[in-house]
Amino acid sequence: MTYEELENKTRRLKSLFFLLFSTEEAAAKERAAQRQMLAIEELVHSERNYLRLLRLSSGTIRNNLQKLQPPPADLDSVFLDIEDVIDVSSRLLGLLDQKLVQPGDPRFLETLCESFLGLSSDIEAAYKEYLANYNQVTVVENSYKQKEALWNDVVRVIKTSAPEVNATSLSFFLVMPVQRIARYPLLLQTIQKHTEKTHPAYALLERTAHTSIALNYRINEYKRFREVADKYKKTETLTIKDKIYRLNTHSIAKKTARFGQHIRHETGMAPKLVDEEFDALEGFFYVLEHGILELLENVETYLYHLQGFLSCRTEEFDLDMDGEKAPICYKEITTALRQWILPTFEKRMRTLIRKPLGALRDLLVGPRNLIRKRLDKLLDYELIEAKSNLSYEEQDVANTYRTMNTLLLNELPQFTGVALQMIWSVLGTFSCLHRDLAADMEQLFQSFAQQLPHSSMERGAFREWAESAVLEGARRLETLCRSVEHTLNGPVVQPLSPSSRRRLKQLTDKHGSGKIYQVVGSVVGSRDLDLNLARGELVAIISEADTRGDKRRWLVDAGGPRGYAPSSKLIRYHQPTEDPPPSPQLTLPDGVTETRRHSYTPESQPMTVMSQPCFQVLAAYDFTATGNHEVSVRAGEPVRVLEPRDKRGNPEWSLVEARGGARGYVPSNYLAIAPRPPHH
């Protein structure tokens, strides 16, 4: 064989090998394209089937379950977030169908990636709420399983509603979103695996696959944060017995370590981990909480006084003014205000102001508990922060603290922002309600304007007249109230029990007799530091005003606890002397038995006109008045008894007239009856 023949054969072999290689490469590309198309079709077809089953469960099955008698409890909570998942899935398929391209078209991959990326934020929002609440769904379904008859009805409804699906429980459908969100990265990575890097949409596909992975990570982190928040934001009301049962070696050691770390912080032995960002958020939260609680308290006080105003039905009183035009107009105006305008205003206040503020107050409990728990976890974290190697339990402690801290840093600004918006909205609504009230009242008064006096006056003159009339009426009312109070404010003396006597001695030794007051009506505390006091209890006055200068709330010592009580329920206590010292000025004639202690009892010994010798009422002991309603007398001084009891019917005090015409109360047991000395 010549050299030329050998070279020709070699050339033919190379050509044959190249042809075979090109054919194999083309076949491989064809197979990859086929697999890519199958993966794309699987994603689209599985999405359509997934959406169909979700609609079947939230539509047909849910409606049939609601027809059961009685319908299953908490059924709406089972399908709480599934509508958002259905919406985002249908929008994804709608974008694919809108482009009018089929999975085999090279442009379909680009359309798929653009649609997924465009909806990625909506997909995350829908699925993270569904997955975070999925545990509650399983809890509700397990509660159905505990009732055999109910569960049999549920299974029957599922089978009849979806006979083509071999499903025997709600979780068959409700777990699908949990599985679907995790399948997106797998399906997209499969498509990417069978797509050439030279494909025009390869970079977009790679970005979409990475987005789906990051999306799953964020959803799982959100779910983990929610689980931590749900665990620690609850407020438990445990009895002492329950708390004792919870004590064990581990909990005691943990609380001891926290207490020790706190002591080291306070003494400067250990540095405190400072997070300025969180400290600022925490401070603002507590300021906001205080403002919400203060606003709610003011609204409740406002409604309380409004109720009191509505309860005064002045139009029902006959003031003997029939025939006078002005009183008739005022009566009709008052009737309209009390029966229509103000009740409507009160109802709107409770619905639009009181109810939202009450709901907002209840929402504060969760963040407040999380902030307190974070402090505990921070103390635990500081104890292990410096360690290089952490045990499994210590690593869990560190992860829990980091999770709670991150959760609060992310969620607390959003919560306070929404709460602040609610407060501004409530205040705006409050202003609008009063504007509407003013408009209604103006319309009401205008209908009577021509019939009322002073209606022809100029605006400035009318305002001046109205202000002076109101001030004059207030002055007269205040004078009347003071007069009535002075008349009725007789001292109250209640019989004391042995425990009350001990408390009286304790309070007197500590604060002095001038500070002792008695409760004239039951007191039920409604605010922080308020005391609950029974009628007749003795207290000592510490301050005649609270920390804000409100003189309606007095700071009192109740013989142990200290707190605030309304001043209107307190009156000065006058201790009856068990055995007053004998007075040298009082000498009774021989043969007349001296009556001491309740010797003057007008009920048992009514004074009648007698023949000689006549008797007179004397002060048996010195008494010094401690108030305007009392009168001072000296032992042996004759007095005239005007009333044998005070205005409350208490016989322990008598209203007398002393020398000089001075009138006031003195203790009844300070009076005695003695014969009148003969005249010479």
Which terms summarize this structure?
alpha+beta, single chain, 680 residues, three-stranded antiparallel beta sheet
Quick overview:
With 680 residues, this protein is α+β, with helices and mostly antiparallel strands. It is built from 18 helices and 10 strands. Helix content is 60%, strand content 7%.
Please give a structural write-up.
The chain has 680 residues and is of the alpha+beta class. 60% of the residues lie in helices and 7% in strands. β3 (553-557) and β4 (562-566) form a beta hairpin. The protein has a 5-stranded antiparallel β-sheet, with helices on one face. It is built from 18 helices and 10 strands. Residues 577-613 have low confidence and may be disordered.
> β content, as a range?
5-15%
- Supply Rg: 44 Å
- Which oligomeric form is depicted? single chain
H/E order of the elements? Answer: HHHHHHHHHHHHHHHHHHEEEEEEEEEE
> Care to count the β-strands?
10
Low-confidence stretches: 577-613
**Helix/sheet category:** alpha+beta
Biggest sheet: strand arrangement: 4-3-2-1-5
Keywords: Guanine-nucleotide releasing factor, SH3 domain
Domain SH3: 612-676
InterPro entries: AH/BAR_dom_sf, BAR_dom, DBL_dom_sf, DH_dom, Dynamin-Rho_GEF, SH3-like_dom_sf, SH3_domain
Domain DH: 35-222
Compile the SSE list and pairings.
Blueprint: H1 3-66, H2 75-78, H3 82-98, H4 106-118, H5 120-132, H6 134-145, H7 148-161, H8 171-174, H9 176-193, H10 202-232, H11 240-246, H12 249-267, H13 276-311, H14 325-363, H15 365-384, H16 392-447, H17 459-488, H18 498-511, E1 516-519, E2 538-543, E3 553-557, E4 562-566, E5 570-572, E6 615-619, E7 640-643, E8 653-657, E9 663-667, E10 671-675
Antiparallel strand pairs: 1-2, 1-5, 2-3, 3-4, 6-10, 7-8, 8-9
Helix pairs in contact: 1-3, 1-7, 1-9, 3-5, 4-10, 5-10, 9-10, 10-16, 12-15, 13-14, 13-16, 14-16, 15-16
